[in-house]
Amino acid sequence: MSSLSWSEVFAYHRTRKGIGKRSLLVDRGESGYRNVFLPDGRILYQGEGKRGNQEPVGGNLCLLLAQKRGTPLRVFLRERPGLWRDLGCYRVEGHRYSLLPEEGRWVYWFTLAPCGCEEGL
């Protein structure tokens, strides 16, 4: 797992949004999204959209399609401002759409599982 600058991550990810066409950005809450890092290496990744009910469009649709097709996505973890770690490839193993009681809205939770299908950055 290598450390990367934002410019290196952006060159691969190509968007400032968390969900790109071939990669995802994760953090430990700095973005306002509640990613959960499980002891077995999987990640519960909150879907796109910070207000209102999340819909199956944009980044959420990308992840739903990646799950359906089994498409691997590279995951980058923000360690601190300007420093990222390449966690490697993950597959969208599953998802659920559930009520976030404290906010009174429905959100997607995508389960990301490491898949060992490494491709060089």
**Fraction of residues in H or I helices:** 10-25%
- Give the name of the CATH architecture: Roll
State the secondary-structure class. alpha+beta
Percentage of residues in DSSP E strands = 35-45%
- The count of domains is 1
CATH first level: Mainly Beta
Cα Rg: 14 Å
Explained architecture:
The protein is an alpha+beta fold and 121 residues long. The protein has one domain (3-114): PUA domain-like, CATH 2.30.280. Helices cover 17% and strands 40% of the residues. Strands 1, 2, 3, 4, 5, 6 and 7 form a seven-stranded mixed beta sheet that branches. The protein is globular.
What is the secondary structure topology, with strand pairs?
Blueprint: E1 3-5, H1 6-13, E2 23-26, E3 36-37, E4 43-46, H2 58-69, E5 73-80, E6 83-100, E7 105-114
Name the descriptors.
single chain; 121 residues; alpha+beta; PUA domain-like; seven-stranded mixed beta sheet; 2 helices
